[in-house]
Design brief:
CATH class of the domain at 58-288: Alpha Beta
Largest sheet: 8 strands, mixed
Number of strands: 54
Oligomer: single chain
Radius of gyration: 37 Å
CATH superfamily of the domain at 58-288: P-loop containing nucleotide triphosphate hydrolases
CATH architecture of the domain at 58-288: 3-Layer(aba) Sandwich
Number of helices: 44
Structural class: alpha/beta
Distance between the termini: 82 Å
Shape: globular
CATH topology of the domain at 58-288: Rossmann fold
């Protein structure tokens, strides 16, 4: 007996660091300890001395039972709080009889006396019983009836892991007793509760009870605590068990605890609640409840399956979880073999059609299985299956209606094949399942020990998983289970139980819970008491992460410590809200920045899975929808906000007559109604919790209101603050190389409007497949726009969309028309095509044999073995006759033009006509020709690009027009002589009369202003403000204007516009000076044309120079004859692509992501990232709410992403505002800040960074000076002050008006910072000396004037004294550095000039001789003396 007790006292240690495979068992007793050195290495054997003392404090506590202490109801008040006291008349006020016609006999009923006896004489009892035995509903009633019979006080709490289960179980108990919910029995989920003072049984989610116990610091308010489904082992449950054990054995010994489990590991819970008596560990008693079933299940393993199918053995490797090709083959054989087996479903119509439930690890494997089954079912070499397969994917990301297909009755002649993840393990039951195929794999969320990022890792499933899966059969019929692993592998290699969530998931909330207990113990000490303690490194990393986001201070009780920190007000909010800590931070920042309601909605939406309901085959439609919801913001989170506002607005307007209409609206917009309702519930719950903290929107006449222009900017900045340091950079292009390459990739076409495919045989006449290509790029019924397709004799196919609109697009998004914006000047169709490539859409051409292809091409006007069309070939692009000496577009040798604006698009974009007599004459002739005779109505198929006549609605006259897009019976036309657009029906188009004037070139040409773009401060989407458009029309309408031509590209004139011939102040400059516009660089094609124009205009013979510099015109097609390509003679070619030369690659700012490829989640609005401003010299910041990585750690996947505003210097500005601390890193001459090193700082003794994995480097592309840093410090000070005021408002030490005053100042300082003028710097020439903490290379450090308070989350930042050099001195410093690099072969040698000596060297040997010459040395010494003077002068300046 003593030996047995000694053995039981050995605590089983859970294997850590290896989820699968066998680990040698280790054990420890109460006296086990571990050295500090060993603890530093990680593991779970830490704080053993503390654990020993804690467990010893549990010894010799009095064991008593509630019934003995509470012999009558009058003694209740000494145990429970006043508000929970119940009068003795309670039992007489309610009916406690069981409704027999509702209550059925359950297996647990026969164990009633045993259960009650064990509960009476033990503090803790463990009940193990399978699903359906009745333990959840019956045990609380048994206990209540027992106390009622003895007239004892009763207050039972029962936990459930899920909300829906909590409500359903409450309903069931009340139905059995005939009670109204919320009287004797009620529930609480989150802050939603249905309870009363008379309540005896309360069902609640695990998290609710956990929050109650953290606040109460004891268990005394309850008589019994029943924790159900303890085998699920999520973080809340493990921490709840820790608290229950601690309080039970210290300050609440009279409370009874019942643990209920459905799996084989009940002994682990019994041992955890062991009681040490007489130096012996006595585990809690276990009651095992059995359950009988009339049906049986037979389990087969892979070795048995291989023997039956006559295939060779398939081996599995515990270290390499995967589905091999051989396993896929066996899977297909099994599915076919079920046709030969009888089915035992209790339904005559279901004979031989039992469903197959296949367990796969993830969505990718489901897709693979789906494709293999479809291919196998249509394989002509195999007989068709006896029963057709109704293949149904089942995954949490799929919409509810698709998931519901698994539960519908199978169609006659079909068998359901359900491809599921572990979603069907326990929460879903398919009643007609006869067969289970289990690949014995699962995906688990783990935290990487190095990067601290989460990843979904493919693992072998545990026995618990597999037994749950096997339990899906044998319920309504006999079942068969096929485990696709060998039996020996299953028994000897695979783990028995799952790794608890506390070992593999983030610990932020758990650590915050430990801080809310107000103990003197560290988080590591408290968590060492958990049933399976997390790795010490994981805890330490979490503490650093919480310090980084502001939840914990760097100090604990005034002392700086690595392993602990005092909880801040921000941390208290994070611990209170049931969402991710970063989303909680976003809400608090939202309150500081006066957008609390918006951030609350976003945070709730980001916490709900599957708001966007994406059917299996509608992922492209889903992408289009989220693009519309984002409204050009390039933000997934703003897309969520727009969706919620529209949905709520329609509900307020009573747009939904009933639930059916609301559901139809959701289906049209590919959103889940269930998800929307969960979202609204969570919004309300968060709002209630914030109200409890007195954290609410400020009200009153002085409330801060953000305009429609300001709000998107502020929201993005708040997101950047919440998700720091998940920063990624879209780097700027230092020169024109990138855009030049982009133009080259698309054969000289406009890279903004062109994509290309590869894979076409270069010898094929590509133009004959034009209509096929159009069918590939346009979906059936989709609006066809003006698209041109080109070939260049290579394997490429170029597709160019003629798109120049920056105006909002009219779309039907929510049942009525809305204006939505697209990103930049890239057509939306480009984004859609790139998305189709990402979704692995197949672009397949059917080609004729080469000889027949050329025979057809030549018969239709193409020249043999050339891709260029011959003159006169009808390509649907109308060919105009050129009147002698007339062309509206300015030729290369003409620098100035006189124009009238014929149509205003916006302040930077318009259509113009030449202001000359010839143009006026042609306009009159065309108008007369079209309106003085009867025109013939078009009786052919309308084609994009064709020229017709149509009436302009405003004056009723006919004008020439070109069809630019076709959508069903609606045609969009452009009036080519004026630039107006209009939609017309096909019967409103007419042929042009056969008069020469009607076939002259278009008289209007498109113009854009050179060097300007809409000012960001007036519209964050880069759209011209309507007030500015009106002002532009006012100063340009109806007058003669003068244009200085910069370039002509694709028939678009880029110019500087003047109101007079004197050309003193251009309209371009006026827009910039007034703050209406920002400067911008022209595109590469524009610069190229401009350089050609300058050469011609400055040459001695402009005409000859123009001829010499002329370029061949790129030929593209809009239409061509279409051959019939059918039969065996045609070949199928899968094209690769489409590709855009503007696709962006992101680079991580944090040290641990260096060199890793960044993938944006496929459902994100930013999953297709294209550079709409490749010529921009500034970087763009990309922020992710979540960062995960693949199992190998080579790729990162980001989601909930936002592209930050295109403001110069914004990446560095945001990093400096929100980082914990920062060090500026200077150039070699100490004259410029080259980079910012941001993070938690470093240990001044060891010089090692505190949290190196999250240190980020931001390279600057604008100058940073002391005045800007002072503004940043002022903003950080105001943020700290705002946090203090929120806390004081909660404790009634401050008023909302004080907080309001701070919010006003925060907004004011933020926009001053954003609008500060910044000088650009070339990142290529500005390199930091180092990127190491604490190294300043002799620079003088500047400290803030104000002191940082200990509780400040954002301490004030220091700076360094910059050396003020003039332009010449900077140029010399760069020149000397370049010379040094050339001499030592750091850079390839080119001819160079020494600026100091004014000497040019042609060879590296000459340069080396030069730098050692006395003359050069004297010059350098003199220059250094000048620099010293500059340094000394600088000391007195700052």
């Amino acid at each position: 007996m003593h030996a047995l007790l000694a053995k039981m006292d050995k605590k089983p240690t859970y294997p850590v660091g290896r989820v699968n495979g066998r680990t040698a068992p280790t054990s420890s007793t109460f006296g086990d300890s571990q050295s500090e050195d060993e603890s530093a290495k990680g593991g779970v054997q830490y704080e053993q001395e503390f654990v020993q003392k804690e467990l010893e404090s549990y010894v010799n506590k009095p064991i008593s039972n509630t019934q003995e202490n509470l012999c009558n109801m009058s003694e209740v008040s000494s145990v429970v709080p006043e508000e929970t006291f119940v009068s003795p008349s309670l039992y007489s006020r309610y009916n406690f009889n069981i409704t027999t016609d509702i209550k059925r006999e359950l297996p647990i009923d026969s164990f009633k006396s045993q259960i009650l006896s064990r509960i009476e004489f033990n503090q803790v009892v463990v009940i193990e019983g399978p699903t359906g035995c009745g333990k959840t509903t019956q045990v609380p009633q048994m206990v209540m009836d027992s106390l009622r019979q003895k007239n004892k006080y009763c207050n039972i709490v029962v936990t459930q892991p899920r909300k829906i289960a909590t409500i359903n179980v409450t309903k069931r108990v009340c139905e059995e007793r005939g009670w109204t919910i919320g009287t004797v029995c009620g529930y609480q989920i989150g802050l939603e509760k249905l309870t009363s003072r008379d309540e005896m049984i309360t069902f609640m989610t695990t998290g609710v009870l956990l929050q109650k116990l953290i606040s109460a610091k004891s268990l005394k308010q309850f008589t019994h605590i029943i924790i159900d489904e303890v085998h699920e082992r999520n973080q809340d449950l493990d921490f709840l068990l820790l608290l229950v054990r601690k309080y039970l054995f210290t300050n609440s010994p009279n409370v009874k605890v019942i643990l209920m489990s459905a799996t084989i590991n009940a002994s682990e819970f019994a041992y955890y609640f062991r009681k040490r008596i007489a130096n012996q560990a006595i585990p809690a008693p276990i009651i095992k409840v059995g359950k009988s079933s009339p049906y049986s299940s037979t389990i087969f393993y892979l070795d048995q399956i291989c023997a039956m199918s006559f295939s060779g053995p398939v081996h599995c490797d515990i270290s390499k979880p995967e589905i091999s090709k051989d396993l896929w083959k066996i899977f297909l054989v099994l599915v076919r073999a079920f046709d030969k087996l009888p089915s035992d479903v209790d339904d005559e119509e279901s004979v031989n059609s039992g469903s197959i439930l296949v367990f796969l690890p993830g969505i990718n494997e489901i897709e693979e299985a789906n494709n293999l089954l479809l291919k196998d079912a249509t394989n002509s070499e195999k007989p068709p299956p006896k029963l057709k397969w109704d293949i149904i994917p089942l995954h949490s990301s799929l919409p509810n209606d698709e998931q519901a297909l698994a539960f519908k009755k199978v169609r006659p002649g079909y068998r359901k094949v359900i491809l599921s993840t572990n979603i069907a393990e326990s929460s879903i039951t398919v009643p007609d399942t006869c067969f289970v195929i289990d690949f014995c794999l699962t995906k688990v969320m783990t935290v990487d020990s190095m990067t601290k990022y989460m990843s979904l890792k493919l693992e072998w499933a545990s026995h618990v998983n597999c037994e749950q899966r096997a339990g899906r059969v044998g319920r309504t019929c006999d079942g068969r289970v096929y485990r696709l692993v060998p039996k020996s592998f299953y028994i000897d290699e695979m783990e028995k139980v799952n790794a608890p969530e506390i070992l593999r998931a983030p610990l932020e909330h758990v650590v915050l819970h430990t801080k809310r207990l107000d103990l003197n113990d560290t988080p590591a000490q408290i968590l060492a008491l958990a049933m399976t303690p997390p790795d010490i490194k994981h805890i330490e990393s979490t503490i650093w992460k919480l310090k980084e986001i502001g939840a914990l201070l760097k100090t604990c009780r005034g002392q700086f410590v690595n392993s602990d920190g005092d909880i801040t007000y921000l941390g208290q909010v994070m611990a209170t809200l049931p969402i991710d800590v970063r989303l909680s931070k976003m809400i608090v920042l939202g309150n500081l920045y006066s957008c609390l309601e918006e951030t609350l909605i976003i945070a709730a939406g980001a916490s709900i899975q599957n708001i966007f309901s994406v059917p299996f085959q509608k992922r492209l439609d889903a992408y289009k929808k989220i693009m519309l919801w984002s409204d050009g913001s390039s933000s997934d989170l703003i897309a969520l906000l727009n969706l919620y506002f529209v949905w709520q607005a329609r509900k307020r307007d009573n747009a939904f007559a009933n639930q059916k209409e609301e559901l139809a609206w959701c289906q049209r917009n590919l959103v889940s109604l269930k998800g929307l309702r969960e979202w609204q519930l969570l919004v309300n719950e968060i709002r209630l919790r914030l109200n409890y903290l007195d954290l609410k929107e400020t009200v009153g006449p002085g409330k801060v209101y953000l305009t429609e222009t300001e709000k998107p900017t502020v929201l993005k900045i708040v997101m950047a603050g919440a998700f720091y340091p998940n920063y990624f950079i879209k780097p700027s292009n230092y020169n024109q190389t990138a855009e030049r390459e982009a133009v080259k990739l698309v054969g000289g076409r406009d890279p903004f409007c062109t994509v290309f495919f590869t894979g076409l045989n270069p010898q094929q006449p590509g133009q004959i497949y034009l209509r096929q290509i159009k069918q590939l790029i346009y979906e059936k019924g989709e609006k066809e726009t003006d698209v041109q397709i080109g070939f260049d004799g290579s394997m490429k196919i170029y597709v160019e969309f003629k798109y120049s609109s920056t105006e909002p697009t009219l779309v039907n998004l929510d049942g009525f028309n809305r204006l939505t914006y697209t990103t930049g000047k890239i057509p939306p169709k480009i984004y859609e095509l790139i998305k189709r490539r990402q979704l692995n859409d197949v672009f397949e051409l059917k080609l004729l044999q080469l000889q027949k292809a050329w025979e057809f091409a030549e018969a239709n006007g193409a020249t043999c073995h050339t891709l260029l069309p011959v003159e006169g070939l009808a390509t649907c692009v109308e060919r105009f006759s050129h009147t002698a000496d007339y062309d509206p577009l300015p030729p290369l040798n003409i620098p100035y033009i006189r124009i009238h604006i014929s149509n205003h698009c916006d302040a930077g974009h318009f259509w113009a006509q030449k202001a000359d007599e010839k143009t006026n004459e042609l306009l009159s002739q065309i108008e007369e020709a079209l309106n003085k005779q009867v025109l013939k109505q078009v009786d052919e198929q309308i084609k994009v690009g064709k020229i017709y006549a149509a009436k302009f609605v405003e004056d009723g006259l006919f004008y020439r027009c070109k069809v630019t897009a076709i959508a069903g019976q609606i045609n969009q036309v452009l009036f080519i002589d004026y630039g107006n657009t209009q939609e017309v029906n096909p019967d409103s188009l007419y042929y042009l009369p056969q008069r020469s004037q009607c076939f002259v070139v278009p008289l209007a040409f498109e113009c854009v202003l050179y060097g300007v773009k809409p000012a960001y401060k007036h519209h964050p989407l880069g759209i011209w403000n309507e007030k500015i458009n009106t002002q532009f029309r006012r100063i340009t309408d109806g007058i003669l204007l003068y244009g200085e031509v910069y370039s002509v590209v694709n028939n678009v004139v880029e110019l500087e516009l003047y109101r007079s011939a004197i050309k003193e102040n251009s309209i371009n400059k006026y827009l910039i000076d007034q703050g209406f516009a920002d400067n911008c660089s022209p595109s590469f094609l524009s610069k190229q044309d401009h350089e050609r124009r300058v050469k011609i205009q400055t040459s001695s013979n402009p005409v000859q120079e123009a001829s010499r510099l002329s370029v061949d015109k790129i030929i593209s097609y809009t239409d061509f004859a279409d051959p019939v390509v059918e039969g065996r003679e045609c070949t199928h070619v899968k094209l690769k692509g489409p590709y855009s030369p503007l696709e962006i690659r992101l680079f991580g700012c944090a040290a641990q992501v260096e060199g890793k490829h960044i993938d944006v989640e496929v459902t994100s609005v930013n999953s297709v990232l294209l550079d709409s401003e490749p010529q921009n010299e500034h970087s763009r910041l990309f922020v992710a709410g979540y960062v995960g990585q693949n199992a190998e750690g080579t790729r990162l996947r980001v989601r909930q992403t936002t592209l930050m505003p295109n403001v110069p210097g914004l990446p560095a500005l945001l990093a400096a505002i929100f980082c914990p601390t920062m060090e500026p890193k200077l150039t070699k001459d100490n004259s410029l800040v080259a980079a910012l090193l941001c993070g938690l700082g470093f240990n001044e003794t060891t010089s090692k960074p505190f949290y190196p994995y999250h240190d980020i480097i931001i390279r600057l592309d604008t100058e940073l000076h002391i005045d800007e840093l002072e503004m940043i410090n002022k903003l950080r000070y105001l943020m700290n002050n705002g946090i203090k005021l929120m806390q004081n408002v909660q404790h009634v030490r401050s008023t909302q008006n004080e907080l309001l005053a701070t919010q006003i100042k925060i907004k004011d300082h933020l926009f001053k910072l954003l609008n500060m003028p910044r000088n650009p710097i070339c990142r290529e020439n500005v390199v930091p000396q180092n990127t190491t903490w604490g190294r300043h290379e002799g620079a003088v450090l500047l400290t803030p004037n104000m002191e940082t308070e200990e509780q400040d989350i954002w301490p004030l930042l220091g700076f360094v004294k910059l050396v003020k050099l003039d332009a010449f001195q900077r140029e010399v410093c760069r020149n000397l550095e370049d010379i040094e690099n050339l001499v030592y072969n750091v850079k390839p040698f080119t001819n160079t000039v020494c600026i100091l000596c004014q000497e040019e060297t042609l060879f590296v040997e000459d340069l080396r001789l030069h730098i050692i010459s006395c003359h050069h040395k004297r010059k350098v010494e003199k220059f250094k003396e000048e620099l010293k003077i500059a340094y000394n002068d600088n000391d007195g300046d700052e």
